[in-house]
Design a protein that fits this description.
Low-confidence stretches: none
Largest sheet: 6 strands, mixed
Strand order of the largest sheet: 6-8-5-9-7-10
Helix content: 25-40%
Bound molecules: adenosine-5'-diphosphate, magnesium ion
Radius of gyration: 20 Å
Length: 319
Amino acid sequence: MTTEFNIIKQYFDRPCAHTDLGVGDDAALIQISPGHHLAISADMLVAGTHFLADCPAFDIGWKSLAVNISDMAAMGATPKWATLSIALPNVDEVWLAEFSSGFFACAEQFGVSLIGGDTTRGPLNISVQIIGEVPNGKALRRDGAKADDEIWVSGILGEAALGLAALQNKLNENQLSHSEKDTCIDALQKPEPRVGLGVALRDIAHSAIDISDGLMADLGHVLAQSHLGAEIYWHKVPHVKVNRLDESTLQGLSLAGGDDYELCFTAPKNKRAEILSIGEQLKLKLSCIGVTKEERSIHIFDADHQPIELKVKGYDHFN
Ligand code: ADP
Ligand code: MG
């Protein structure tokens, strides 16, 4: 018979690294490295809101951990431990096996141990808590940006939002080629958290955030908490390029689309060369897209320095 304990044993109990006591007792026991903060964050994935009902279980497992690891990256923290609280509508062994493979594939790639959690029956809901470490005083915070910092982003923005539009059949026939569609759906369902970048930026960036709700919304949090404004140059934004989509659609996808899980960070201008060489070492595109300003408003300009009005704002779960 499949009991709650069999499910835990079979799908969620794997060997743990840097852990004194993992799954199986009332609580896990871990030791924190001397001179470090614990960085702790949680993210919940709800069926229908954060993934579509027919999303492959492997990808749901991957993404539920990856979005949490992305928060560690954004803090400049090294992810180490995770807990998983999961509500399942029924015991579907095929689904569980795939979910667990996806979760642990991500855990292994980023050196994270699953040390505990909770398993219960209910509408599909996956709640992961992530715990990492960052040396005291080195965390990349949202409130650390300074006026005249350069604003940078990693990777390419808008692919995930385009993948979602494709899955929701919001695109016309032939707007995306098969391979563009695959790339975008992969970006949506299997994001790569930028942990190496976050760690490399500890002594370089003044502030950082991961882009989960759209660049403008998330950069907006950094600017608000740092009491700053910004100028953004659209032609410098590394955006998804599809000839069959018009410019304002591309702007909406890249500036306001969600689920990129790239990092947006600010750094003083004299760090430019160091930042570019980090990008080369990590084989990760890093683009300087603007500057922060004392004046607390955000302006986006095109290549001719004409202001751009964004029609779509970032994602808000309550709107
Ligand atoms: P308790 O009743 O004391 O809360 P549980 O019976 O819920 O304990 O869980 C037993 C053990 O299995 C605990 O160590 C818990 O952390 C772990 N556990 C439960 N669900 C999961 C899960 N989905 N993933 C990882 N560990 C889990
Ligand atoms: Mg419990």
